[in-house]
Amino acid sequence: VPVEVERVAADRWEHGSSLDLSLESGVAQVPWTGRSESLWGSGRDAMRGLLAWGRAEHGWRRLLVPSYYCQEVVEALQIEIAVATYDLRPTTPRIDPVDVRDGDVVLVVALFGARPGVQVPDGAVVLEDHSHDLLAPWAIGSDAHYAIASLRKTLPLPDGGVTWSPRGLDGPPERPMTPEHGAVALDRLSAMILKRQYLAGASIRKEAFRKIAARAEARIGRGAVSGISAYSRSRLSTLPIEAWREARAANLEAFRGAFGGAPGVHILDAPFAVTLVFDDPARRDAVRAGLLHRRIYGTILWPQEDPVIPIGAADLDLSRRILSIHADQRYTPADMVRVAGAVRRVLAG
Ligand SMILES: Cc1ncc(COP(=O)(O)O)c(C=O)c1O
Q1: Would strands 125-129 and 296-297 be described as parallel, antiparallel, or unpaired?
Q2: What's the CA angle centered on 325, arms 74 and 246, to 5 degrees?
Q3: What is the mean pLDDT of residues 127-153?
Q4: Are 29 and 205 in contact (CB under 8 A)?
Q5: Mean pLDDT for the stretch of residues 163-177
Q6: How confident is the model over 253-283, as pLDDT tens digits?
Q7: How many Cβ atoms are within 10 Å of 100's Cβ, its own excluded?
Q8: Angle at CA of residue 183, ends 182 and 189, nearest 5°
């Protein structure tokens, strides 16, 4: 009789880094039902597919993105359209309407899933990015012209992005999966399966799947615009997205409760992850390194040291003080209490 292996063996406990394969299933809820969605190879493929279509069909000429955004994504978008920034960071609410001109598309990003309070004057096209919290009330109730999401940031899928129109406008037709993307998706799926086995205690070296994952990450979203893999297309409809969203919220609460507060650091009010904002960049670096020793892998979203587009001093400064700690469905509140204890100990020196 096969014995159900423990999801994570005691000596393999770690926290963060890329998602491993999940076999949980349920009925997926999504914000795009009946709203002309198209599935793509990644978030970048989704945006590029939409922008190429909008340029040809609607004369879109320029994309305005938040000044605080992923530079690798900006680099990919520049293949399709001229990109400029408007001032927006997760720590500063924006009051003034975005300054737009004819042919502009404004990318409104729910940064770390927080409600994006951005005003866009009539006449410009609004494109929302809901990658960090797919089922947020403002994603479901949106009246933006178009929306996109990367599916692989919150869901255990090897690839995937989506475009839809909250207003029910026509959107770009899907494209086939390219052979290059197929190879990347296979690598990512392989790394996810191997990681799951590693965590469960199998005799797999961590470097084996980390190398495959890194190779895939370096290539995803960079070639010709691709459609989604057959695996992710089918699996998407069986993911218990709502239950996982609730698990994430409970994990964030568990962290907050166990962490309390500490001088020189605060937690951002946003649902994607435990996002710590430090007063001092050196403190952030020290905490990140201390957590790494305890096999807790914090992420910097996003490094701005080498921007492909001019950004503000405040954006660069924030990127040096920020640290995100995963809080997704892989973890239990007990894991988060353990992580909060580790952060406190590292802070205490
Ligand atoms: C908010 C946000 N939007 C879009 C993307 C692009 O998604 P992908 O990496 O799947 O191309 C990312 C991640 O890079 C992201 O964090």
Answers
A1: unpaired
A2: 95
A3: 97
A4: no
A5: 97
A6: 999 999 998 999 999 999 999 999 999 999 9
A7: 18
A8: 85
H/E stretch holding 146 reads strand 146-150
- pLDDT over 70 at 225, yes or no: yes
The Cα diameter of the chain in Å comes to 67
Crossing angle for the helix pair 333-348 and 241-259, to the nearest 10 degrees:
30
Pair of tokens at residue 292: 């790494």
For ligand 1, atom 1, the nearest C-alpha belongs to 131
Alpha-carbon span 84 to 205, nearest angstrom: 43
For a mutational test of ligand 1's pocket, the pick from 39, 40, 44, i.e. the residue with the most ligand atoms closer than 8 A to its C-beta, is: 44
Atom of ligand 1 nearest to the CA of 45: 11
Which of 31-35, 75-79, 90-94 has the least mean pLDDT? Answer: 90-94
Q: Which amino acid is at 196?
A: R
Residue with tokens 């947020």: 136
> Which residues' Cβ are closer than 6 Å to ligand 1?
42-44, 70, 73, 109, 129, 131-132, 150, 152-153, 161, 221
Q: Is the pLDDT of residue 1 over 80?
A: no
Alpha-carbon distances, residue 324 vs 65, 233, 302, 348 (angstroms): 21, 28, 10, 19
Percent of the chain with pLDDT over 70: 98
Query: Count of residues for the chain?
Result: 349
Mean of the per-residue pLDDT values of the chain: 95
| H helix intervals, the chain | 43-58, 71-77, 137-140, 179-200, 206-219, 230-236, 241-259, 281-293, 313-319, 333-348
The pLDDT of 222-228, averaged and rounded, is 96
pLDDT at position 94 is 76
Q: From the alpha carbon of 111, which atom of ligand 1 is closest?
A: 1
The answer to whether 98 and 86 have CB atoms below 8 angstroms apart is: yes
Higher per-residue pLDDT: 5 or 208: 208
- CA torsion sign, 283 to 284 to 289 to 294? positive
